[in-house]
Structures
1.
Amino acid sequence: MTTSQALMPKTGIRYWPGRFVRGIGRFLKLMSRNKTGFVGFLIFIGFVLMTTVGTLIVPKVTSADINAIYAPPTWQHPLGNDSQGKDILAQIVHGGRDILQMALLTGIISTFIGVALGSLSALIGGGFDAFLTMLADIWLTIPRFPLLAVLATLVKLDNMLFLALLLSVLSWAGLYRSIRAQVFSLKERDYIEAAVALDLGMWHIIFSEVLPNMLSYIAISFTFGMTSAIYAQVGLVFLGLVPLTRNWGVMINLAWTQGAIFFKDSIYFIMAPVTAIALFQLSIVWMSRSLEEIFNPRLRTG
Amino acid sequence: MSSTTVSTQVMPTKIPLGRWIKRITSNYVVRMLARAVFTIWFVTSLIFFLVRLMPSNPIEVYINELMVQYSIPYAEARDQAASLFAIDLDAPLYQQYFDYMVQLAHGNLGDSLRSPGTSVWQIIVTFLPWTLFSVGLGLIISFILGMLIGMLLAYKRQALWEPAVSGTASVLSSIPNYIVGIVLLVYLGVYWNLVPIHQMRGSRSPGIQPGFTWVFIKDIFFHAALPILTYVLSTIGSWILSMKSSTIGALGEDYVTVARARGLSEGRITTAYVGRNAMLPLITQLLISIGFVVGGSILIESIFVYQGIGYRLLSALTTRDYPLMQGIFLIITISVVLSNLLADFIYGWFDPRVRIAGGN
């Protein structure tokens, strides 16, 4: 804080480090308005730190230890050991990275597709709009997870970018509908019409008038894209249909195929990844509430 | 409209063809039906072309497999594969597509690759009812319970226990359904040893006679209990939360105030004014969740080894039984489309505006 204050000149010219720190401060203050949302945000940050910094601190376990099979938790192994005697905590720390990356990637791509198609559809209208709306209606009724499972047997889904792209394409319809409806209603608002009448320019209208009013939808859909990506990815991995590097889904799958799930001592082996996935999903959903309030000031209470 | 023209003229006037067409196409029921048929056609074609145009064409894979397994020449293996896939491999793609559609229209889905002599249709008929039973019952229970709890929360939102219930609902709604299933299995079945999970496997006990007997009904509920519990727990949270917020919204509406001013009984206001309007948005959600839950049955049924269509689909996927896979996927789609259609009609029945205005 002191450095940022020192950097802030009295002349009023803003240096970006100061603005940046103040921006983060404001962001945190807004985030903390909603208690649940803030807790979710903190857990989410915890997961991000764990999969980035954590992997540098906790060493990756590669060798099995026959003497420690299903050993209960100790100070050295806080979550106990798995069916091969490997430390579970290390696996949890290292197993989150590709789930997190995949979720972020899918969130970004699906939001982009939804926003682009939704706004285009509402702005162009006519046959284009009617066609896309009909396609979205049909798309929503296609059972997504079975389709993914069928696709997994036809194509190798081991490339993360490809899987993210596929998940995004499969889930465009929901976001498309809400963005389209939002743009339609925004088009009729007085302030947009005023901006058009004042000839403020296309870019100004899009970025200063329309987008800020859609940010809460975009934030929500981004988090929704993330959670559904995690659901689908872990689900596919759990069923053994997608070969990916060791992650939480693979841990559940291993516990499952080795029958560890029916073994009382292995409770840590199965519950650790289960808790990680549940907590991660929960943190994203909770965080989305704070994001919604930030971008939609009308929701702010108190 | 037509009644006035009939009464003024002796002969029933000929309504122009154009107007008839317009009347048919603007009919709510007809439009819904057309969309359902179109969706099924779309998905069928999608799967057909995906299977045929994929880099690792499953039919070629199967032909190679046959050649290796029985050491037969390519042509023979090809004929065998063609008959199993119910496809003429020499015809151009559009011809194959046309034939496939004709076969499908006759209800012929081909034969299973892994259990020769059994048609895909037979397999579906034995496995599908269990999924419909468990998923359907689970969704109905959770929908009704969720609505009641949601309304209660909206009415008692000052109560001390309200945040606890809402919090639980929010946790339940964010956790993936298979995670709920695994946790139930691990704790109820293994750790606390409360339920005999090994006996609960399958859709019914071996050797039991199906029929309207108490023993049979008890048995199928015994086997479906855990999957149903999973469906209820994993969907109820979102029903509670949306019902709560839409009830709070409805309570603030003018017509509720007017109804109170007219001195209507609180019970009537709750059911006919608040409840009926508050549940409208939930029906649309139910519509979307049907597809999601049926799709998720692959995971839930695999966890509990419940022999429904999802369980069978997974085994078809792992053994690469393509005709069966195609058939089951089609059937899942059809059941989702039909249940959506049903939900649309129910929506139209609850909200007359949809029927009359022909949608938004």
Note: Chain B touches chain A through 53 residues (CB under 8 Å).
2.
Amino acid sequence: MSSFLDYISLSWDHVLVLALGHALVVAISLAIDIVIGVSLGVLVYRRERAANVALAITSTFLTIPSFALFGLFIPIFGLGYTPAVVALVMYGLLPILRNTVAGLRSVDPAVAESAKGMGMNARERLLRIELPLAWPVIITGIRVSTMLLMGIAAIAAVVNGPGLGEDIFAGLARVGSATALNLVIGGILGIIVLALLFDTFFNVLGRLTTSRGIRD
Amino acid sequence: MTDEATKENTQKTSETMIRLEDLSKVFPGQDEPAVDDLSMDIYEGEIVVLVGPSGCGKTTTMKMINRLIEPSSGRIFLQGEDVTKVNSDKLRRRIGYVIQQIGLFPHMTIADNIATVPKMLGWDKERISDRTDELLETVGIDLSYRDRYPKELSGGQRQRIGVARAMAADPSVLLMDEPFGAIDPITRDRLQDEFLRLQREIKKTIVFVTHDIDEAIKMGDRIAILKHQSKIAQYDTPEKILTDPADDFVADFIGAGASIKRLSLSRVEDIEPADWPVASLSDGYEHVQEKMRSTEKGYVLLLDDGDRPSRWVSAEDIEHDDVPLEEAGRPAVAIVEASSSLYTTLDTMITSYKGSAIVVDGEGHYQGVVDFDTVLEAINAMRPEEQTRDRAKRDVQTGDGGR
Amino acid sequence: MTSQAKTSGPQGAARLLRYLTMPIFLGLACLALYLYVSSQNLDSIEQRSLNPSAIIEQTGRLIELAGISTVIVVVLGVTTGVLLTRPYTRRVTPFVIGLANIGQAVPSIGLLALFALTWDFGFWPAIVALVAYSFLSILRNTMVGLQQVDSSIIEAARGMGMTKLAVLFRIELPLAVPIILAGIRTALIINVGTATLVTFIGAGGLGEMINNAIRLDRTVVLITASGLTAILALFIDWLAGVAEDILRPRGL
């Protein structure tokens, strides 16, 4: 325990740099996921077959072991940032897509009908009625994706990607040395802290952007 | 006679708000049309009720007016303009639409809900705000509710906001699909009365769909009784439908008690009240006793200083003047407003002490007393008309083959 | 989706087709891989890595690790889930579910490393790490599945005189089975994924082939090993899906 605290006081800047890299790669992938996931969800939520296909494909992504996927990407994208982001984007897509579809489908039909009956066109209905009402569910999906990506991003180290995974693999490589365990614990704790921070952020963001009328 | 009829007709045509011409709707995958070749005219300022059994197509018909359902064939005219093919979103902003489940936007405040169509039409903020306040007052919701959310309101309140929202941009036409269907009967009754009172002020053209014939009779200026595929069985005033049903279908739909239902169309102010002895509380015992002696009725009605009915006293009650007049006899409770229907009046009378009801005006001032005799007279006056009609119908039927 | 309706008429044919889509796709992928490998000139290292017996052995390892850890975690997870949803522990439920949500962020490689460094490298530490990693997921599914059982059904059962234990085994668990089955399937897939990483703590498996290929920069081996791993994972998931459909009680 004490050795870990010593380690932190000595190397906190190193851990911090890795943590920032980790946070950044997750944030970028998440941003791409939100854009693709929500847009795709908006496109397919009314069409059952298209939705089923989209959901099946994205869930296939999640089934593939991350190590294998990263490995497959090396010949295509090389090492570093690119394969990491591509893989993370693939992994984080399903929760957001699935929740966007579910959220949009859960809008009370009476509300949708009265909006149409008042003369709102499809675009206005989507932007002013359906998306705001589906928003809480969508945010939940974003939070799930975030947690997922936090853990998977650690594996990106095998493709020389950024993040705290580097420390964990380094610790494994230096088995037997004094710092090995500290590196690993530092990596894990760093990821957990980042996860809590991101989750809190989305939690608060969710509350702030959700109308009081639908918050329970 | 002919000149008047023509004049009436031309006047009516120029005031036709909505015309449906040979409207049909066939849903994909179905053999029979849901609405088959429907034509009808709806005049400005009237409430037309579409009523019929489930599945007759009444809601489909109404939804074709604002083209939430596109007609398969036929045309729709709004204020003389053919709107069958115009941009449907723009069309709907000119028409108010209220549905049974209301459909208030839960994530918007009451004010924002009401402001929806005006905002789409580009009104400025101040105009919208004034209009919102005006509407809230009109539908009887306190202005402090502006910033509340639908989930904080009761069913009846939500329904009122739904109506306010539909009227926000001051459309000339309102479409209402069973708007009072999802509310408890007591609140529904009250809302119907308030709505009718509102309509007397704003005089909108309203198309109202319901499955409840009693609601149709109460609310409609004209009623269209629709059969399967929205074929019109009868399209006329409630009065005529009740006294002269076009066929068995209509008669069956009205159900038993058509005559009693007709009583709901007559007002107590239309009949002659009985001659009843009245006195004032401040008149004193002697005066009242004199009144009692001069009448056969056996009861005197005492009014207070504001001319409002206060107490009934019998001869026994005023034999001795040991109690003040204010406490003599029994309190007068069976009271109806002059604008109440005969139906309501009869209802009050049945449970009253002596089978009579006191008629008062809007402020509660005494107008007269009606008892079973007076009401019976009025009913009998309606009967000769009915007897003539029955006889005429029977003649037509026997003309067919003597059965 | 009940198993009895599966093969009735044109609807049955469509359903059968849906079941076959994945295996057909995987078969094609295998074929593509095979053609790819045979078209390449392999050097000695690659030939050694890519011989069938090595592949089979490592695949077997992976399946063994995933299978054993899943069985263990299901037993532990379902039991704990049952215990934590009893009336006297119900208050804990939202807290645990919240914990499970955050727990998804814990990196699998991190847990593996932790167990390796504090205990030992090798098979059993790997198993324990796999169990630890997928535990929260199956715990959450079990709890959610039991929670969503309509309380009025339980009330009716107790009202008929069923003991608490009987209610658990004859009402609650059967009604929670669909969600628990889904949870088992998820845990299995998670374990397959994590098992690819156990090479880093000396437990072998297909991941070892991938890792070697990366270190030795052998693209053909890399593609083959990664591809095979992915195909294997998708195949296991497909099998689990079919099993899930068969095992789901009728009427639910």
Note: The longest strand of chain B covers residues 16-25.
